[in-house]
Specification:
By secondary structure, this protein is of the alpha/beta class. It has 2 domains: 4-15 and 98-228, Rossmann fold, CATH 3.40.50.1000; 17-94, Putative phosphatase, domain 2 (DNA polymerase, domain 1, Orthogonal Bundle). 49% of the residues lie in helices and 12% in strands. It has 9 helices and 6 strands, in the order E-H-H-H-H-H-E-H-E-H-E-H-E-E-H. Helix 1 (17-30) packs antiparallel against helix 4, helix 2 crosses helix 3 and helix 3 (58-72) runs antiparallel to helix 4.
């Protein structure tokens, strides 16, 4: 039934949001005198505002932390504090890639009978590095690193590769990025929720649950693919 099975990367194949959460905790501690809720709300709004300028990923997150610290301190943030934020970013970029349970065996199994793609958004260098370090790169016949995941993005990719939406299925943890756009173009989608999701990714149009599948974990995916096939 499917010409291509595509996977999201961050928080679908390996842990990612947990790294951002740990860094946000450190950032709140650094600016604790301003109150944790104020720091969190200011950082969140700054990130969303900056998406159109810096895109998704660690580097944009670092710049948003620096901007937030400047705003909350009225420009009195110290050089040492900015250095600390830069160190946070380097730690994030160097964090080990920890695959989610069942990922390796599922990807290996499905690659024997299907063309597998990886479609992820974020910083090009960071995502390329993570894919290489994951040990999964050889299983994917096509890797797309995009600035955002929208109807336009998916339609362009499928058109370039002459893939009919009805013969394409996307696996991901984000309703906003991995499920809703696919449903809207008539493709298939499987939602596998991660333990935590960035608030921005939870803001999405409603789609009926009968238009996509939801699994508790990726280990259940091969049986679902067989059922649909």
């Amino acid at each position: 039934m499917f010409d291509v099975i595509a996977f999201d990367a961050d928080d679908t194949l390996w842990h990612n949001e947990s790294i951002f959460t740990m860094t946000q905790n450190k950032f709140r501690e650094m600016l604790s005198s301003h109150g944790p809720e104020v720091v969190e709300q200011t950082l969140s709004s700054t990130q969303i505002k900056n998406l159109k300028h810096f895109g998704y990923g660690v580097k944009g997150f670092i710049l948003s932390m620096i901007e937030t610290s400047i705003e909350l301190t009225n420009g009195d943030v110290s050089g040492n504090e900015i250095q600390q934020i830069l160190d946070f970013g380097r730690e994030m970029l160097a964090a080990p890639i920890e695959l989610l349970p069942h990922v390796r065996e599922v990807v290996e199994e499905l690659s024997q009978n299907y063309h597998l793609w990886l479609i992820t958004k974020g910083d090009l260098i960071d995502q390329e590095t993570k894919i290489a370090r994951s040990g999964l790169a050889d299983y994917f016949s096509n890797v797309e690193i995009v600035s955002d995941k929208t109807i336009v993005t998916y339609t362009k990719i499928l058109t370039q590769h002459r893939i009919e939406p009805v013969r394409f299925i996307m696996i991901g943890n984000s309703m906003r990025s991995d499920i809703v756009p696919l449903v809207q173009i008539g493709a298939h989608a499987v939602h596998i929720p991660y333990s935590s999701t960035w608030e921005h990714e939870q803001d999405h149009p409603h789609v009926d649950s009968d238009h996509y599948s939801e699994l508790q974990h990726i280990g259940l995916l091969p049986n679902l693919i067989l059922e649909k096939g």
